[in-house]
Specification:
Rossmann fold; 5-stranded parallel sheet; alpha/beta; aminotransferase; globular; glutamine-fructose-6-phosphate transaminase (isomerizing) activity; 345 residues; 15% strand; SIS_dom_sf
Length: 345
């Protein structure tokens, strides 16, 4: 068994623990935000943390109604420029807490009196120390290079904080069920074997989703890239039809995340269109009819909101990549050319 697989399976317990660890800090942060007139949220992150930032952007804009900008950290580190963040809420995300460019964004914001928050897995990390408020993933050491439990705990922390900020009691209640839903999903992992075997020889693929699950398409493609070396490319369904669709060829694998919800109509249309192109479709959905349209499919639980389905979909993505890597004779724990901590500036 790989370390990656072990860490995937730890996630239900990790999610329960991370909320207990951060409950007080979340309350203090929300009290601070209530005293400020926040006009914009800015999030600085790289790699897998940037995918968590995309998720947070959708969640904040739809639940809180404040526009969110994803920072270009090189503005601070490469161009040595300073932007006005005085009335902003600035978030830095880095599992290691050592992302030098994200740290510079948060430091600059703090100097201007902005509210600053970080999400890391190390309480003594430079990013944690640079921000006024710190959300601690508290996952324990993640030994596999591919981030699994740190990514999911980051997203879970963010959506619990955002739901509380938005005073959305219904979503907060639904979020409590996520560890148990994930546990039930993990009891049926054998059904993935046949699906993964189908794709053991693929060299390239597209990964599609829309709305908040676009963040998971990005993360799923990254997991496939780094653990199997397959050329995986993620697109929002809306962008895919503006040009990339022309790259489709017969039998090319296309992985489509298709949970029921606001994006379902658009997703259904793209499934039909991709099917007509002759591509090979893997549908990940809680809708039986749509799953039946795929050449293969993976079932996720029913009745998930758009804020919760990404947490389940990312677990599917992690398991798919981990199993495919092993099937191809690779080690997902130590991908070639990669280190656990990547520092860019």
């Amino acid at each position: 068994m790989t370390k990656m697989w072990e860490e995937i399976m730890e996630q239900p317990l990790v999610l329960k623990k991370t909320i207990e660890t951060n409950s007080r800090v979340i309350d203090e942060l929300i009290q601070e935000l209530k005293t400020r007139e926040i006009s914009t949220v800015i999030i600085a992150a790289r790699g897998t943390s940037d995918h968590a930032a995309v998720y947070a952007k959708y969640a904040i804009e739809t639940l809180v109604g404040i526009p969110v900008s994803l920072a270009a950290p090189s503005v601070f580190t490469m161009y040595n420029k300073r932007i006005n963040m005085k009335n902003c809420f600035v978030i830095g995300i880095s599992q290691s807490g050592k992302a030098a460019d994200a740290i510079e964004v948060v430091k600059s914001a703090a100097e201007q009196g902005a509210v600053t928050m970080s999400v890391t897995n190390f309480v003594d990390s430079p990013l944690a120390e640079a921000s006024k408020f710190h959300l601690f993933c508290d996952t324990g050491v993640e030994k596999s290079v591919a981030a699994t439990k740190t990514f999911t705990s980051t997203v879970y922390l963010l959506i619990n904080f955002i739901a509380k900020w938005a005073q959305n009691a219904e979503l907060l209640e639904e979020l409590k069920s996520v560890p148990d839903i994930m546990n039930r999903l993990f009891q049926k992992t054998d059904c993935l074997d046949e699906v993964v075997t189908r794709y053991r020889f693929m060299k390239e693929c597209f990964v599609l989703a829309r709305g908040i699950n676009y963040s998971i398409a990005l993360e799923a493609a990254l997991k496939i890239q780094e653990t199997t070396y397959i050329r995986a490319k993620a697109f929002a369904v809306s962008d895919f039809q503006h040009g990339p669709f022309a790259m489709l060829e017969r039998d090319m694998p296309v992985i489509i995340y298709a949970p029921e919800g606001p994006s379902f109509k658009d997703i259904t249309e793209i499934v039909k269109k991709v099917k007509d192109s002759g591509a090979d479709i893997l549908v990940i959905s809680n809708n039986r009819e749509l799953r039946a349209m795929g050449d293969s499919s993976i079932e996720i639980p029913e009745n998930l909101s758009d804020y919760v389905s990404p947490l389940i979909n990312v677990a599917v993505a992690q398991m798919f990549a981990g199993k495919l890597s092993v099937l191809k004779g690779l080690n997902p724990d130590s991908p070639r050319g990669l280190n656990k901590v990547t520092i860019t500036r």
